[in-house]
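Lay summary. Proteins are chains of building blocks that fold into shapes, and those shapes determine what they do. In this project we predict the shape from the chain. Here is one chain we studied, written as its sequence of building blocks.
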Amino acid sequence: MEIQVYGQLRAATDGKTVTVTPNEPTVAGLVTALCVQYPRAESQLLDESGDLRPSVRVMVDGETADLDTACPADADIKLFPAMQGG
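And here is the predicted shape, written in a compact code that computers can read:
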């Protein structure tokens, strides 16, 4: 499954587009697979409790998605990491 990543995730994954194979076809499965494959991305996506950071945004086929959202193999997936600033 291909994911377009943005911001600091590009440095953590060494690219704009990454391919992962989640154990389950959901956003939660996708995030877990991404963190396993690219450990440097984990701190940008998950908080100390292992929950998705509130400012992380996942888009599936142009729609904002939550952890339970299904991710078909041909979905257009974009992942925006937690952002800092003011």
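What the prediction tells us: The radius of gyration is 12 Å.
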